[in-house]
Design brief:
Distance between the termini: 22 Å
Shape: rod-shaped
CATH architecture: Orthogonal Bundle
Order of helices and strands: HHEEEEH
Number of strands: 4
CATH topology: Helix Hairpins
Structural class: alpha+beta
Number of helices: 3
Length: about 150
C-alpha cells in the first residue's frame, strides 16, 4: 500500500515534460526581452554619440538628415546645446545637452539593471530545467527497470 502512495506523489513523465517545456518557453521569452533591451541600449548609445558629434560640429554647420528611402535633407545646426528628449508617457522636454546626456545615461543604467534581473531569472530557470531533466532521467530509469 505504501508503494502505491509513493507512486501517486511522484510526478509522471508527462508532468515533468510539461513543466520542462514551460521553463524552456520562459527562457525563450526572457531572452527575447533581453534582445529588446539590448536594442534600446544601442539606440540610446547612438543618441549619446549623435549629441556629442553635433556639439563638436558646433552652431551654424550644415548637416544632412536622413528622412527615409535613402533621401536626406539639409539642415543647419542652430543650437547644439538644446536637445529634446522623451521623459515618458509620450511627453518630451527640452534640456541642455549635458542634462540630456545625463537623462539618457540614467535610462541606460535602468535598462542594464533590468537586463541583469532577467539574466538572473534565466539562470534560475536553467537551474530548474536541469533539476527537471535529472528527475526525468531518474524516472525513465525507474520505468525501464519496472518494465523488465
Amino acid at each position: 500500500m505504501a508503494k502505491k502512495e509513493n507512486k501517486k506523489t511522484q510526478p509522471t513523465m508527462e508532468e515533468l515534460n510539461r513543466e520542462l517545456r514551460g521553463y524552456i518557453t520562459q527562457i525563450e521569452a526572457l531572452r527575447a526581452e533581453i534582445a529588446v533591451i539590448d536594442e534600446n541600449i544601442a539606440t540610446y548609445r547612438v543618441a549619446i554619440k549623435t549629441i556629442n558629434n553635433l556639439r563638436d560640429l558646433g552652431k551654424g554647420k550644415n548637416i544632412l538628415i536622413p528622412i527615409g528611402a535613402g533621401a536626406q535633407i539639409e539642415a543647419k545646426i542652430e543650437d547644439p546645446d538644446r536637445v529634446v528628449v522623451s521623459i515618458g508617457s509620450g511627453i518630451s522636454a527640452e534640456l541642455k545637452a549635458e542634462e540630456a546626456l545625463t537623462q539618457i545615461a540614467k535610462e541606460i543604467a535602468s535598462l542594464q539593471t533590468l537586463r541583469r534581473t532577467l539574466e538572473q531569472a534565466i539562470a534560475e530557470a536553467y537551474q530548474k530545467t536541469e533539476e527537471l531533466l535529472q528527475k526525468t532521467r531518474e524516472l525513465g530509469q525507474e520505468e525501464g527497470k519496472a518494465s523488465k
